[in-house]
Amino acid sequence: MSDHDNRIGLVDGSAGSNSRTFHAVLDGDVFVQLDELVAVTRDLPGGDTVTHYGIITELRSRFEGADLPSDTARVVDRTMPAEHVRLAEVRVLRVVPELFVAPHAGAVVSRATGEHRQVALFEDEMKRGKLPVGLDMGGKPVYADMRFVDGRSGGHVSISGISGVATKTSYALFLLYQLLETDYGMELLGGRSRRESVRALVFNTKGEDLLHIDRPNSEFDEKPLAARQWRALGVEDPGPFRSVRLYAPRQPGTTGAVPGVRSRNTADVHAYGWTPEQFVREQLLQFCFTSEDDRSTQVGFVEQQFRIQLLRHLRRLAGDTSGAIVILDEIPASTGFNPDRLAERVPESASAGQGHVVRDFADFVDFTDKLADSDDERAHRWFGRTQSGTRQAYLRRLLRLRRHIGPLVGCGLEPVSAENARMHVVDISTLHDDAQRFVVGALLDRVWREKQGTGRTPLRFVVLDELNKYAPARGFSPLRELLVDIAERGRSLGVLLVGAQQAATAVAPALPRNASLKVAGRLDASEADAYRFLTSALRERASRFMPGTMVLSQPIVPEPIPLRFPFPPFATNPDEAQVDEAAERERADRIAGTLRAMSGPKVDL
């Protein structure tokens, strides 16, 4: 590094420096901005040298010699002598070798470029790979240590910021794009064969925005800066996600598997749900009771009791292949009570006359209603020795859920499969909050169960916005505890959560605490104090961030680094989606052919 080419000033000798911070007096003809990286080298007794690397966190300007505000005009008019002084406040990122000494007053301060920039950002310590996670204010890549992305030394990403301004979901998709759609992402994940086995589950919570990420962004060509930024990240030809499968709930009021979407052709989207057999065997009843009121009363106990009894009494409906079941009236006395073992066994068949036939969620509710009205020994087996009021509270909860969860449970429905693409986007935006929690719980539980005993690879990434809705800071529910379990043990099993929320204080503390990468976009000023991983200056700045600007904290770098990420080449909402002209022509031809067939042969009169 040439002092002549990169020098910006000298270490301020009028104010004390220490091993954490110092000030630089800037040279008169030098332009610097916040977040630039600098280096200061000093000689040690014995001939060795030590280099301090730091980041500029604040800039100041004043007239040295002016004591009163009115002196400013006199200095400008040159009727009063003074010297214009500009100062840069620097926080130390790293000292090489690691000696905790202060930089010398009067030492030359230079820009950290080339190899020195890499050392300043600990890139030389990222020996198992580094993932570009954005660009600094000068347009150069900022990297995350891959060990803290793929779970080897840490995992999970926590993204915070104001809704609609912080671009939390956009940044989460940017990270997945870097991993799943770039050549270096493929190499970091272990090569093409291993990358093909990586899966990402993305929950779409706002409109039908993420149901278009497999389409080019029609606005991308109008943003030449975005193309330059992608090239700076090493991506010459960015485009849409290439391996995507889209899911949406079935259309309301229908019995078939027709997805309820408006901005996409229904042939492009798969309707998802669960058959009655899957509902019972996967123990999804627990995710119907996810509020604190459900779990703080005996209603939670009834749910557990009822869930086990469903497994014990479960049989397949004879002659049916659509997932209908029979809940037997009587079962062998030797039937066990271990829910995991009961769920693993393949149910035998039974005729409709041997019990209650269930073809949809409403049939579950009807069966519960009949049991709740009785007070015999059979009802006690299902509800436990609970009072009538508790049974009725449990039933009222199911009756309320019938409208919201009912369309998600029925014969002929298929759950989300992780085997058909790398990216799986599941739309829950049109569902009631209760149904959203049910879907999130059911899918996460399946991912979690499938990863037990398989090791860390293949990796499973989960992107979930509005995390506070599913894992609130206080309370208890099966879904909250599942997410806490994923946060605490998920990295060792290869389940990595990319969670987003408006405020980290609203989320169960274990989730942001266990996230190796912490990212903040624009923050609410009233919440800024909660983000202790940011310096006070950055917390104040974060309340004024523009969309696309984030700040990243990772374990290997002691100070958070502000960064930007480029405009996406894939559509992030229906308005951005570029029309697939070939697909539209094919669709128009199909419609025209249908109309011709309906009109019949032409007759000349």
Explain how this protein is built.
Helix 12 (361-373) packs antiparallel against helix 14 (388-405) and helix 15 (433-451) packs parallel to helix 17. The chain is elongated and about 105 Å long. It has a ten-stranded mixed β-sheet. A six-stranded antiparallel β-barrel has the order 1-2-5-4-3-6. A hairpin with a 7-residue loop joins strand 13 and strand 14. It is built from 20 helices and 22 strands. The protein is 31% helix and 22% strand. The mean pLDDT is 89. The chain has 605 residues and is α/β, with parallel strands linked by helices. It folds into three domains: 4-120, Beta Barrel (Elongation Factor Tu (Ef-tu), domain 3), CATH 2.40.30; 130-272 and 415-581, Rossmann fold (3-Layer(aba) Sandwich); 276-408, no CATH class. The longest helix is centred in the last third of the chain and has 19 residues, at 433-451.
Brief write-up:
This protein has 605 residues and is α/β, with parallel strands linked by helices. 31% of the residues lie in helices and 22% in strands.
Helical/strand content category = alpha/beta
Q: Mind telling me the C-alpha Rg? A: 30 Å
Count of DSSP strands: 22
CATH superfamily of the largest domain: P-loop containing nucleotide triphosphate hydrolases
At CATH's second level, what is the architecture of the largest domain?
A: 3-Layer(aba) Sandwich
CATH topology of the largest domain: Rossmann fold
The tally of structural domains comes to 3
